């Protein structure tokens, strides 16, 4: 599936080919901290088919719990995470952050990983009152 997207401020834009059948929720502690949320949501980029259309990505290297050195890429202006990859191993998982994809509503996750790190309240979201907009 061909997709395009951008960071929050629009300085970074891209196009890529992803596998819509490989969209995952990652509950690892690194994704929690890096996203500022309970999990990360990533789509697998097919065969490294990612092309930066505008901007320059800043990179941060993090050793993941798996022991792999992961290159986290983000917009240097607004800080939006764009993707993560294992630079030394092109066959390793190359994950594009779903929130940056323009067609993100079409990408339903079909897998959850690192569930041992999941926050204990995550299964109870339906019990939390919800609102269509922020009313405060």
CATH topology: Metal Binding Protein, Guanine Nucleotide Exchange Factor, Chain A
Q: How many strand units? A: 8
**Oligomeric state of the chains in view:** single chain
Shape: globular
Tell me about the largest β-sheet: 8 strands, mixed
Over all CA atoms, what is the radius of gyration? 15 Å
CATH top level assignment? Mainly Beta
Helix content: under 10%
Distance between the termini: 39 Å
- SSE ordering: EEHEEEEEE
Q: Just name the CATH architecture.
A: Beta Complex
Put simply, the count of helices is 1
Flag low-confidence runs.
Answer: none
Strand content of the residues, in percent? 35-45%
By secondary-structure content and strand pairing, the structural class works out as mainly beta
**Number of domain modules:** 1
């Amino acid at each position: 599936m061909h997709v395009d997207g951008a960071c929050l401020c629009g300085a970074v834009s891209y196009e890529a080919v992803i596998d819509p059948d490989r969209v995952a929720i990652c509950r690892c502690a690194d994704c929690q901290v890096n996203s500022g949320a309970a999990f990360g949501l990533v789509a697998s980029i097919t065969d490294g088919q990612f092309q930066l259309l505008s901007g320059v990505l800043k990179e941060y290297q993090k050793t993941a719990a798996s022991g792999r050195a992961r290159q986290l890429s983000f917009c240097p202006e607004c800080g939006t995470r764009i993707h993560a990859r294992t630079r030394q191993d092109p066959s390793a998982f190359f994950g594009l952050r779903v929130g940056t994809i323009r067609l993100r509503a079409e990408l339903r996750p079909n897998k959850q990983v690192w569930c041992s790190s999941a926050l204990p309240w995550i299964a109870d979201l339906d019990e939390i009152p919800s609102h269509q907009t922020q009313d405060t």
